[in-house]
Request: fold
Amino acid sequence: MNHHELRSFHDGGGADPGRPASHEPPPGADLMNLVRWALFAGLLVLAAVSIGSYVMSRREAPGSAHTQKRARYYCPMHPSYTSDRPGECPICGMTLEPIPSGGIAAASAGATGTGDVPGLTTVHITPERVQLIGVRTAVVEKRPLAGRVEMAGFVTADEARLKRIQLRVAGWVQDLYLNQTGQAVAVGDPLLSIYSPELYQSEQEYLIEIGARDSTTAAPHDGGGHEAGAASSARTRLILLGVPPEELKRLDRTQVASAHLTLRSPVVGTVLERGVTQGQYVAADTPLFTVADFARVWVLADLYELDFGRVRVGDRAIFTADALPGQPREGSIELVSPVVSTGTRTLKARFSLDNHDGRLRPGMFGRVAVAGRGGQALVVPDEAVIHSGEHDYVFLARAGGHFEPRLVWTGSRDGDRIQVLKGVAAGDTVVASASFLIDSESRLKAAIAGLGGASGAGSMPGMDMSAPPAPGHAH
Reply:
């Protein structure tokens, strides 16, 4: 068998020529067909599910809008939290606010003002950062202030109990019995003795008129009435010159004129001023001594002009001296001065206190508490107000985590609250804690914006410090 015959044999040449060749599928072909159809069926199911989900989402869109309308309140600090009823945010405890007509996004967009505090600007803080730094907010309230007003006060002499002692004749001081201030005197105590030729001449004239009167009485004639009247006029002159009754009695008894006169105290009290020395020549207009009776004293309190309307005449006042702690003394307001001091911007409120024990001394300082009359006022927590030395301001908590600096004018304090006269309105939300962190970030952002810094400048984590790009700058 040659080569061609052998190949023909292997190719089936030896088979029956009338029988066609066999083409059987390879092993595993049926399994592969089954897997192919299974994948095709899965793709059809997946396509059907996708189309169904899309159709269902389109059908549920009106229902979603209806659900959003039911959410009427939201948290300005966490806008993602909404509710259909008023209350507090469970995340930060802030009071929920009504959703504005434009929606929460519109409220967030409207809270991008820069504020009115020089050197500060509005800063944005993420909710996570708000929780981390412990920001706490409070709502500006309008409520009656407590009537109690605290003031600084001091003790001074009662002007109605001040006495100025002077002579009515001129002369020279011979003896000075009261030679230092602070000495206590009683009625009748000798103060000084004076040598006065004027007094001697007046007494001599009185004695002459007495002699003429007595001689007329012994020998009556038509001029007796004239001499009696002249004697009475001379005696009245001595009284007007300040000659005391005991000196007049001595003069009537001895009939001897004297150029010396002892001046005695007409009042009781303490010498505050001494304007005379021994041997000095004094006239009728020379102030000798000023004596004050401290049995009753005045207390003058500094009332700030912001509290003018809270203190009235007749209000109960309690004074506690710093030197006498735990010993309050009570009085009532007698006068509120109509004049404001241009230096301190205060006026004086005055009341009197009994001081028979002498423990209150002029010049003593202390605290005055007045049960004044409070009215309705806007108040915020005292810690919410930042005092920079030049301005007082707060940070308003806006929607979407924006904090806006706002200038305020403050009034009186009421415990841990402080009155705000201008700058905020009732219902505004202010930062009540961690203000210094927000203040620092606001200053830094304002400084970077002022220097034209790039928006990629570093900032504290969680705080947005990006400034809007300047016109014409590409980013």
Remarks:
- The helical segments are 3-13, 29-70, 104-109, 127-133, 197-218, 224-240, 245-254, 435-450.
